[in-house]
Amino acid sequence: MLRKNVRVRKEMKWRVMDMTHMQLDDESFDAVVDKGGLDALMEPGHGPKLGNQYLSEVKRVLKVGGKFICLTLGESHVLALLLPKFRYGWKMSIHAIPQKTSNGSSLQTLMVIAEKDNSAMLCPISSSMLQSFVDSNGSQAMGVSNALDTENDIRSKHSSYSDIIYTLEDLKIGANGKLEELSPGRRVQLTLGELVASSVYRAVLLDAPQDSGPFIYDFGAFLVPKTRAREWLFSSEEGQWLIVENSKAARLVMIFLDISHASLSMDEIQKDLSPLVKQLAQGGVGDGVKIPFLAASDGIKERSIVHQVASTLTGPIIVDDVIYEKVDDDISTLIPSEDVMFRRLTFERSECLVQSEAVLTSGGEDAGPKDQKKTSSGKRGNPKKSISPASPTQENNLKVDHNYLASSYHTAIISGFMLISVYLGKIAATGSMVKTSVIGLGAGLLPMFLHRCLPFLDIEVLELDPVVLDLARDHFGFIEDKYLKVHITDGIKHIEEAAKMGATLSESCESSNGGLTSGSLDILIVDVDSSDSSSGISCPAPDFLEDSFLLAAKNSLSEHGLFIINLVSRSQDLKDGVFSRLKTVFGQLFSLQLDEDVNEVVFAIKSETCLKEDDFSEACNELAKLLTVEKASMSQRIIGYASKVKNLS
C-alpha cells in the first residue's frame, strides 16, 4: 500500500505504531477515521481493555471541533463502550450505511461520528437509520436502538443534574475548564480509574473559593471511608466546602471509598490512587513528589462486634463494644480510666451516626444476652438473620452501667427539664406521676436513666421496630416495669390519637389537676433518626418536623408541657428552618448546642407564660433537688448543661 501511494499521494504519511499507545501529539488531528479497528480490538474474548485504551488515545489526539468517524458493525459489547466513552464534551450521531445485498456478514455497517465539543452540555445522540436497515436487519436494528435509548436516557437524566460526573480523561482534555489552573470555587464530580479496571473511585475536585487562603497545601487528597460517606459533612456541597476550608488546601480531591475497596489496606489504596490524583494537581506533579493524603478517621482504638441482626423495618443493626482513641472530657471526669469501653447500637442505614452508646463497667446491669419474658404491647416482628460472636465483655464481666449517660445529648435532654422544674416539683410533691412519652427506644438508655433519676415519671416509650426492643433488653440491660413500658407502635399516629383524645376530653370536662385533662402529656421527647441522612438532617426523621405532627404534639401536651427534639444537622440554614417551624406552633422555644458535637437539643414549651433567663438559676436549683442520681458528678453535669440553655423566642 505504501509503494502504491507514495508517488500519487506525496503528503500521505504511513506510520507503524501501537494504536492503543499512539506516538502522536495532543490535539494534533482534525479527524480520525476508523474502518473496523475498534471492532477488531474488541473481538469476543479480548475484553474491553484494548478498545478503551484506543478510544482514550483518539480523544487525546483530536483537536476541538475534530471528528472521530468510526465504521463499526455496532455489536452490543462495542456500543456499550463506544457510546458512554464520548458522553461528556462530544456531539454524537449514528448512521446506517446503505450496502448492496451480499452473501457475507448479515450485519450492516454503521457509521458513528463523535465531534469534540469540550462543552459541559450533555447532548443526546442523534441517529438517521434507514428504513431498509430496520426492515432487513431486525435483530441488529433492535440492538442498536436499545443501546441508543439506554444511553440517551442516561444523558437526559444527567443533564438535569446540577453535578455532571466526569472521567479523569474528560477533565484532562478540558471538559470543565483548564485543569492545570486553579478556578476558585470550582467543584467537579468525577470518577478515578477506568470502568474496565478492578478499582474505580468516586471523587469530587474542589478549588478553594476566592480569598480563602493562606494555604498549607497547594494540592491534597482526602479519603472518606464508606462508613462516613453519607454524612452531611461529606455528601453535601456545603459540607465539602467546610472540609476544604479546614484542610488548608488550594485544591482538594475528596475520594469516597466503598465496599469494593474493603479488602485493600490504606497503603494499597494510596498506592493505587497516587498516579491518578497526581494528574489532577494544578501545574502537574513530578514523579518523585508525594501527594499529601488526609483521611476522616473513625477514632476507634479497638472494636469487637457483639451482635448483628437484620430487621425488616430498620435494616441491618450492629451492637459492638469499642474503645476510643480519645474519650470526651465529660466521660473521663466521670470514669477515670485510660481505656473506657462503650457498647454501641448502630443502624447501618445511618452508619455514621451512633444510635445509642453506653458505658461498660464492672458494676453495671448485665449486658449479656438474657432470657427475659417479653411484655410489650403490639405485634412482634421477626429478624431476618442474627449473629452473636463471643464478646470480650462477657469474659471481663463488664456490664452496661445505667448510672451514667455516655451520650452528651441525653444529658442535654434531661437538663432541659429545668424549664418546667417548678411544675415538676409541684406534681412530685403531691405524690402524682408526670406523664412522659419518648418516641424512639434505641438501646433504652435514656428511659432507664430517667426512670432512675426522676422516679416520679410515668414513662411510655413508643418504638416502631420490635427488633430494637429485643436488642435493648438482651444487650443493654433494659427492663420494663409499672412506670416504664414500651409500646410497639407508630409514634406519630400514637401522638395524633392522644391529641384527638385530649381535645375530646377537654370539651366534656376538666380534671381536678388545674384544668388538665387526664390524657395530657407533661413531657414528650422525640429521639428518632432519619433513614436518609443525605438530606442534611440526621435526626429526627422528616415526618416529625411536619406541621401536622408539631400541632399534634402541642395538643397532646398539658398546659405546662415540654416538647423536646434531638436535632442533628451541620447546616445552620436547615436548623434555622426547623426553629422557624417550631416558633409558629409553640409559645416559647429554647435550645442547647453541644460543644464539639452536631447535636442541638431543642425545647418547646406549650405555655405562653414567658420564662426568662434570669429565672434559670432558680430553675436549675429546683431540678437539682428533684434528681436522685447515684453519682454526684452526673448530677453536676446535668445542671451544668442546664445553665447553657438559650432562649430562641
From TrEMBL:
Domain spans labelled Methyltransferase type: 3-70
Record's keyword terms, sorted: Methyltransferase, Multifunctional enzyme, Transferase
Gene Ontology molecular function terms on file: S-adenosylmethionine-dependent methyltransferase activity
InterPro entries: Lys/N-term_MeTrsfase_sf (IPR051419), Methyltransf_11 (IPR013216), SAM-dependent_MTases_sf (IPR029063)
Ranges for region Disordered: 362-395
One Gene Ontology term from the biological process aspect of the record: methylation
Superkingdom of origin organism: Eukaryota
Membership in a protein family: Belongs to the methyltransferase superfamily.
Annotated protein name in UniProt: Methyltransferase
